[in-house]
Amino acid sequence: MTSVRVLLVDDQPLVRASLRVVIADTDDLEVVGEAGSGAEAVRLARELRPDVVVMDIRMPGMDGIEATRHILTGSGASRVVVLTTFDDDEFVYGSLRAGASGFLVKNMSLEEILGGIRVVAAGDALIAPSVTRRLIKEFAGRTEPARPRRQLDGVTDREREVLTLIARGLSNAEIAESLIIGMGTVKGYVTRLLVKLGARDRVHLVIIAYETGLVTQSGATGPTG
């Protein structure tokens, strides 16, 4: 089985060393490079073409948000997972807008972080409900002005329901239970939403739901007209 190629980006050598040691003990992950700054991360991502970039946010010079934007624009092959300290980091939402496929919190266990890397490498978005709900409460009110409502044109009422539940952090199983429909049906709705809204993944469906006002910071559903 081919290993997932990982680029570690953090200005703290101890953080990189801890992850490198743990990854070395896995059979399906390998560290192909390390960077201590955003600019170095962009250069190495273009040179090494890793499958996943584990990105810190607060770094001297180019921060992780700008580095993420450059990496995803420049290569298109890599996926980025933010690794940050949630309690004092106000830039997580900005990193998702820049194209990151999810985020990890530094106080998670190393095994949870490794699991998150695997999820993103498999093409999914890391959007654990418990963490996502905290993120939404903290950052939903700090977005740019809502985009025109027309972004939801062509989305059916049922798809709006599914999108609302996604934005509230529910998993596919929880959505199926809430709407009393099958898992396959939920997956179908999610796929159609990704296509209709031009979203990269599930994380970006959440962003669209908040930016268009479908879901508000308080958790109430916004206007649907």
TrEMBL record:
The keyword Phosphoprotein applies. CDD domains: LuxR_C_like (cd06170), REC_NarL-like (cd17535). Residues 148-213 form the HTH luxR-type domain. Residues 5-121 form the Response regulatory domain. The modification 4-aspartylphosphate is found at residue 56. SUPFAM superfamilies: C-terminal effector domain of the bipartite response regulators (SSF46894), CheY-like (SSF52172). The keyword Transcription applies. Keywords: DNA-binding, Phosphoprotein, Transcription, Transcription regulation. It comes from the Bacteria. InterPro entries: CheY-like_superfamily (IPR011006), NreC/VraR/RcsB-like_REC (IPR058245), Sig_transdc_resp-reg_C-effctor (IPR016032), Sig_transdc_resp-reg_receiver (IPR001789), Tscrpt_reg_LuxR_C (IPR000792), WalR-like (IPR039420). PANTHER family: TRANSCRIPTIONAL REGULATORY PROTEIN NARL-RELATED (PTHR43214:SF24), TWO-COMPONENT RESPONSE REGULATOR (PTHR43214). This is Response regulator. It comes from Streptacidiphilus cavernicola.
